[in-house]
Amino acid sequence: MRIPYAEMRAEFTRILLKNNFSEERAENCAEIFATNSLEGIYSHGVYRFSRFVDYVRKGFVIPDAEPEKHSGVGAIEQWNGNLGPGPLNAEFCTRQAMKLASDNGIGCVAIANTNHWMRGGTYGWQAARKGYVFIGWTNTERNMPAWGAKESRLGNNPMVFAVPFGTEAIVLDFAMTQFSYGKIEALKTEGKELPFAGGFNKNNELTNRPDEILETMRGLPIGYWKGAGLSLLLDILATILSAGLSTSELSKREKEHGVSQVFIAIDLKKLKNYPSIESTISAIIDDFKASSTITDGAQIRYPGERVITTRNENLKHGIPVEKLTWEMIQQM
């Protein structure tokens, strides 16, 4: 079934208001979930919403908690998220990083004790549309093994890069596992297998079955040992820059909450070559898209390009969602 964007956003707002969100915070949070769904990131939109509300009800997410600044020097600041809603804390940190970048050319905001930001690309889009380069990442609980290890001791620590591109943006939003766990859970809900191996089963074999990966919580690192190494460094940096919890410490909790995140913005207008940046990016993308395709009729897309197509399609026809999932949301 397909649900109009406005209806989905209104339904999310209604539920958040019932769960102690102020009107403004409910509307902002609902808009993030609905927009994630509109743009095709259903795993961190409509399919994640029920779990988000469950975490609110269990006290892992505190609806009215706002970030507090702990320290700052030059273009870097450390904040405490106070276990507030991850998407709202992430929006705040993105704005603060852009403010620092406007003053200094670059700004870095690291936040401890926050919650899942849902779709990290959301904040890349927000910054890039305002003319900023964006780099951000978060640590997570353990869900990925070091290369050659039997048990998971690394997080899949999603990372985002974004640059302005015309009226839109080029946005690379990726977890350190071949597939995000949100995507794996969404495919399980839809009764589908992964298109490629995405993790290990209990027999230490690579598998493309979502249920087997969710059973072991051993996702396949991107680039094998390279992805595992990158995950480790992202966890170290998020932890020390925010003075927050590491993946190891987060994994001792009943549920993942209180994560550490980093938000970096660069104000391109401060650069001497700013007048030529747009044409430079366009030339790079033109060359990239001139690639010959293996399959006739296939398209070469830059990161984030598919989002634009999906957004327009879902605005026109409605957001696709499993009927049972939507009925459960309506009953909340």
From TrEMBL:
GO terms for molecular function: 3-dehydro-L-gulonate 2-dehydrogenase activity. Keywords: Oxidoreductase. InterPro entries: Mal/L-sulf/L-lact_DH-like_ah, Mal/L-sulf/L-lact_DH-like_NADP, Mal/L-sulfo/L-lacto_DH-like_sf, Malate/L-lactate_DH-like. Its EC number is 1.1.1.130. It holds the Pfam family Ldh_2. This is 2,3-diketo-L-gulonate reductase.
